[in-house]
Specification:
146 residues; alpha+beta; four-stranded antiparallel sheet; 4 strands; 32% helix; elongated
């Protein structure tokens, strides 16, 4: 008899908890509003990711000599302080309204407070996908010579 009462009480307790609308899982999976950033911030993030990718690739090549990379301008950057990037500063404004190609002087500030300067070349092309015109952007890093 005690087992029956315990079983019924447990079922009522679990049934009541399952109907709680304020559960943690409901709060976690609610849609968030889309985040919008400016064009300059988007290109800054793109440039920073490209630089960090270059640094990571160079570290891989030094640790694993068998690691092969296609020869391109990346090897010509001559970054002196290849560390984790703390920040980047774009010295030239990003104005790409009519231009499809733009060189931007970029200062890389590393976590150890040292810095390098490179040129970030942004190339934009119009691509049509499913009848919709989309702008594709590509960043090529180049050595900066004063």
């Amino acid at each position: 008899m005690n087992k029956v009462i315990l079983f019924i009480g447990l079922c009522v307790l679990l049934g009541g908890c399952s109907k709680n609308n304020n559960s943690m899982s409901d709060r976690i999976y609610k849609e968030k509003a889309p985040v919008t950033i400016s064009l300059e911030n988007a290109y800054e993030v793109l440039i920073q990711e490209k630089i960090q990718d270059h640094i990571d690739t160079q570290k891989l090549q030094s640790q694993y000599p068998d690691f092969k990379q296609n020869v391109d301008t990346m090897a010509l950057l001559n970054l002196n302080y290849q560390e984790t990037i703390a920040d980047i500063i774009l010295l030239d404004p990003i104005t790409l309204e009519n231009a499809s190609n733009k060189n931007i002087r970029t200062v890389i500030i590393y976590a150890n407070n040292k810095q390098d300067t490179i040129l970030s070349n942004i190339t934009r092309t119009k691509v049509i996908i499913d009848g919709e015109e989309i702008i594709s952007s590509k960043v090529i890093l180049k050595a900066y010579k004063e």
